[in-house]
Amino acid sequence: MAVPWKVIGALALVLAGFGSAWQFQDWRYGQQLAEQARLSAETLNQLAVVGATAQQAEQDKRLALEQRLAASDKTQSEKMTNAQKAQALLCDRLATSDLRLSVLLDARSASGCSVPATPGAGGVDHAAIRARLDPAHAQRIVAITDEGDRGLIALQACQAYVKALAPAR
After folding, report:
1. Alpha helix (H) residue ranges in the chain
2. Would you say residue 1 lies in a domain?
């Protein structure tokens, strides 16, 4: 049985057509993969840009916060230094008898005291009975108030720190 050449030729043409169709399909599939790869690369690039922008924004926020905290710290340090200077000056004035602390006395309980009732040149209370405090006691009172002042300044510094860290509402 002889195979007619026409059948072999037709079979060859069918196989060639099938092969070229297969190659065309491979080419289209390759194009689709290339397009997906390009889109994926663009998406990754956009995500990288967005991430870098967000990171820069966070760094800018952090830098601004650090600057605000540094300014607040400087202000609080100046307040603390000024309070310490004022306290030292007050203590010096008390120690040199340049300044005397006094207290108002109740007229009924001070009936036996021989403290003058007239105020000094800088006094505010007219005809009130006053008693001078011992300089050592006056210095202890000033030290106590100084500790209170420093505590209030430290509290203000803490409040400013927390306020700077808290998100704005």
Report:
1. 5-95, 135-165
2. no
Q: Residue 34 falls within a domain, yes or no?
A: no
Sign for the CA dihedral angle at 90, 91, 95, 101 comes to: positive
Query: Could you list the residue range(s) of the whole structural domain that residue 133 is in?
Result: 97-106+127-169
**pLDDT averaged over the chain?**
80
First to last CA, the chain: 96
Query: Which residues of the chain, if any, have pLDDT below 50?
Result: 125
* 134 lies in some domain: yes
d(CA 115, CA 128) in angstroms, rounded, equals: 10
Q: Give pTM, 2 decimals.
A: 0.54
Q: For residues 50 and 38, what is the distance between their CA atoms, to the nearest angstrom?
A: 18
Tokens of 46: 């956009």
Q: What angle do CA 92, 137, 117 make, to 5 degrees?
A: 95
Enumerate residues 6+ apart whose C-beta is below 8 A from 133: 100, 101, 102, 103, 141
Nearest-angstrom CA–CA distance, 105 and 112: 12
